[in-house]
Amino acid sequence: MKCFLGVGGAALALLVAFSLPSPAGAVWPFGRAGPDAPIEDLAAAAAEILSRAIRMDTTNPPGNERPLARLLVDVLEDQGIEAKLVETPKGVATEGRAAAWGRVPGNGRARPIILLSHLDTVPANASEWAVEPFSGVVGGGYVVGRGALDAKGVAVVHLMTLVELARRETPLDRDVIFLATPDEETGGRDGAGWLVAQRKDLLRDAQYLLTEGGGILAGNGGAVPVWGVSVAEKSPCWLRVTARGTPGHSSAPSADAAVPRLIAALERVRNMQTDVRVTPEVQRMFEELAPYAAEEDREGYAHLSLGLAVDPRFQSRFLSSRGRAALVRNTVTITVLEGAPRTNVAPAEAYAHLDARILPGQRCDVFANRIRAVISDPGVEIEPILAFPSRSSPADTPLFDAIRATAAELDPGAAVVPRVIAGFTDAHYFRDLGIVAYGFVPRWLPPSESRGVHGPNERIAIQNLDRGVKTLVRILEHLAASRQ
Fold this sequence. Notes:
Blueprint: H1 10-17, H2 42-55, H3 66-78, E1 82-87, E2 98-104, E3 113-118, E4 137-139, E5 142-144, H4 152-166, E6 176-181, H5 192-198, E7 208-211, E8 215-217, E9 226-233, E10 235-244, E11 248-249, H6 258-271, H7 280-289, H8 298-302, H9 304-310, H10 312-319, H11 322-325, E12 331-338, E13 345-346, E14 349-358, H12 364-375, E15 380-387, H13 398-410, E16 415-421, H14 427-431, E17 436-439, E18 444-445, H15 447-450, E19 459-461, H16 462-481
Parallel strand pairs: 3-6, 3-7, 7-17, 8-18, 9-16
Antiparallel strand pairs: 1-2, 2-6, 4-5, 5-19, 8-9, 10-14, 10-15, 11-13, 12-14
């Protein structure tokens, strides 16, 4: 039996030894629930739906998200909620793509809010997991499997939020729109990007959007919980590096062979240094974190640009964290590598992919030119794979105030911080339309569980599903009370 990385105790031993398909008594008879037979136990139903969602393998590529989109639409329709399956581009690798859309109407006094999630996942290597990653194991108070956090668990919290809102006798002031899209993990162009461009009618002139990208860091050892609300993201600058050389038999190597040329180019990239730069969004983030930082770092956090420039000890401490360092400089990681198909062949070309993430306000073409200058080899070509600009959303809005009010009510003493994330989500497509988009999912995660995102043994507590729904409903109620 493998150990469950980052988590211990008898509950996990039980999880691995007894792979329960669903919580006892929680099997929901889809197609027979209906508005006249409402869901009595939201937490158990959420766990059951999430377990079923995980068992639908939507690894992207190819995605094949249509069956999952159909499941979510069925759940909404079973509860008497307006919903539809939305056709999206099939893409080059699959014919099984679709999005799920639903709406609980408000009284029309304010513009809608969208709850956005995605249906696809990254791959999972079963040899690294304690359970089969697409088995949707439920037990020990958790749902385990690829997508439990990113982002099928988000979709289920949003889904159950609509179910809760549909029960209200008095509607909110605005429509609440459920949108779960395909293709996010490879850039979202055939998912959210296509919907924003081709199906604006589904957005109904929305004012706000909530999606993944932020959450609640549970306070440990006396530390206060931090409600991190993402207002900006670094943008991707994915590049293909292709080296060309003289092909032939590898027993007689050429001086300009493609693979050694590629290796030399990548070594230069690996050793390149990028400048430290503090954007206004990152400055504000650390200003608000300053009162909660270690005493020796409070001044540096409060005046981050100055601290990094003039205090070598603070700079060393700050940049020693990969997560913090990634927020103040452009980064580049070597990922995909491809050379010859056989050991005894020297290929005509070899290539690699670079995953560069650039700070808000900077451009991929400029960064790509810097990569070209660093490599400085006419036999190596650089071309973009994915790039888009980064935009931020203001933190001074009624929605942000509603999140603050909910934190004060449900998690007294918590810090609510506008943050920048080093990754990217589909939020940028909606920010381009002028929609205020925040990355925030109300779930309390310790670092050990956060590491499950794109990693092994991804899981979410059933309690977090339940709390997430209740907290999100409360945020929407506070937003309605603001009358904006």
